[in-house]
Amino acid sequence: QSVLTQPPSASGTPGQKVTISCSGSTSNIGSNAVTWYQRLPGTAPKLLIYNNNQRPSGVPDRFSGSKSGTSASLAISGLQSEDETDYYCAAWDGSLSGWLFGGGTKLTVL
Amino acid sequence: QVQLQQSGPGLVKPSQTLSLTCAISGDSVSSNSAAWNWIRQSPSRGLEWLGRTYYRSKWYSDYAVSVKSRITINRDTFKNQFSLQLNSVTPEDTAVYYCVRSLGHFDYWGQGTLVTVSS
């Protein structure tokens, strides 16, 4: 059972904007940066967002991140069929002295 | 460009030790800014961080509570690599294992190794 809580699924139509949430606590999201990863089948997770809202080079600006208190969100605008895959949030937990991942959200593009 | 190349067996018997190695190119295991992690993924447990080793004037290691009694992460500075040992494995440890560099976030990942625990 993940300490960071994500909805198991999300969906949208092409061109739409979708938001995926990630809920934690004061010891993780509340006091540390949140990162987001995209995992395509059969491949290693790819860094999408770091430091809550920063995009690595090469990640389209359709992807954006935000954080407020003990929750964070990943927004994907201008949804495309290639965005249909799994998304994970992660944050360092100071109480556990370890990294935590969310359970993952499967995004379906209808 | 950082590259991480994993090696190790894909099949381990129950109660035995899982051992994987990660060779680093493009960075140093003794870096004063990076940490070197092991993460696994399984359908039942999702993504799970197992532990890390890093150098900040001396060596440190952190381990996940769930595996703390069974895990060791070592490093070999001469070969520029780090390794994972997980003892007393059970079928629950069946997963794809990744070695990963972190600089505050996980940026470079190894290719992944599917390790199956079965007799």
Task: Explain what the structure shows.
Helix content of chain A is 0%, strand content 45%. With 110 residues, chain A is mainly beta. In chain A, β7 (86-93) and β8 form a beta hairpin. Chain A is globular, with a radius of gyration of 13 Å. In chain B, the strands form 2 sheets. In chain B, strands 2, 4, 5, 6, 9, 10 and 11 form a 7-stranded mixed sheet that branches. Chain B has a 4-stranded antiparallel sheet with strand order 1-3-8-7, with no helix packed on it. Chain B is globular. At the A-B interface, β3 and β8 of A face β5 and β10 of B.
What are the defining features of this structure?
heterodimer, A: 110 residues, mainly beta, six-stranded mixed sheet, three-stranded antiparallel sheet, B: 119 residues, seven-stranded mixed sheet, four-stranded antiparallel sheet, 0% helix
Summarize the structure.
The complex is a heterodimer of chains A (110) and B (119). In chain A, 0% of the residues lie in helices and 45% in strands.
Structural class of chain B: mainly beta
Assign a percent range to the helix content of chain B: under 10%
What distance separates the N and C termini of chain B? 39 Å
Number of strands of chain A: 9
State which percent range the strand residues of chain A make up: 35-45%
Rg from Cα of chain A: 13 Å
Contiguous uncertain segments of 5+ residues of chain B: none
**Which quaternary structure do these chains form?**
heterodimer
Termini separation of chain A (Å)?
29 Å
Largest sheet of chain A: 6 strands, mixed
Radius of gyration of chain B: 14 Å
Principal-axes shape call of chain B:
globular
Number of strands of chain B: 11
How large is the count of helical segments of chain A?
0
Element pattern of chain A in H and E: EEEEEEEEE
Globular, elongated, flat, extended or rod-shaped: what is the shape of chain A?
A: globular
What fraction of residues of chain B sit in β-strands? over 45%
How many H/I helical runs of chain B?
0
Average pLDDT metric of chain B: 96
**Helix proportion of residues of chain A, in percent?**
under 10%
Biggest chain pair contact, residues each?
A-B, 22 and 20 residues
